[in-house]
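== Folding task for one protein ==

=== Format: two labelled lines per protein ===

==== Paired sequence and structure tokens ====
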Amino acid sequence: MPQTREHILLARQVNVPRIVVFMNKCDQVQDKELLELVEMEVRDLLTKYKFDGENTPIIKGSALDALNNPKDFEGKAKPILDLMAAVDAFIPVPVRELDKPFSMAVEDVFSISGPGRLPLVVLNADALKLAKKLKLLVCVQLLLRQ
């Protein structure tokens, strides 16, 4: 679970206040006790990185099964519906500053083994109207090795 650890650590580093976990590919696991052990390990990781590991919703399912059976609301697609219900219930709605113009800045960039660099983008104000033209100002710094 090194990737899970990296995701939780990164979320802590960028001040994500709460997390909802989806344990994918559960359909491929024959031993249900193994799923319980993985859930306990994820909860321990969440607690270690100062999230509410005890109360964090952990949803088990198969994203591929849900994708292939989108109308099976009581069966294979149910974990995705449960995931979104958990997000709605557990993740607080942020306070929106609608009186300010839209502003989005890259606050930091993290280097991650594998995918490369991950920018941390912060919305400073989020009043954005549909179909409104935006001016995009981009500053790119290239580091060249000699």
Q: What stands out?
A: The mean pLDDT is 82. Helices lie at 2-13, 32-48, 63-68, 78-90. The first helix runs from residue 2 to 13. The beta strands are 21-23, 58-60, 103-112, 116-125.
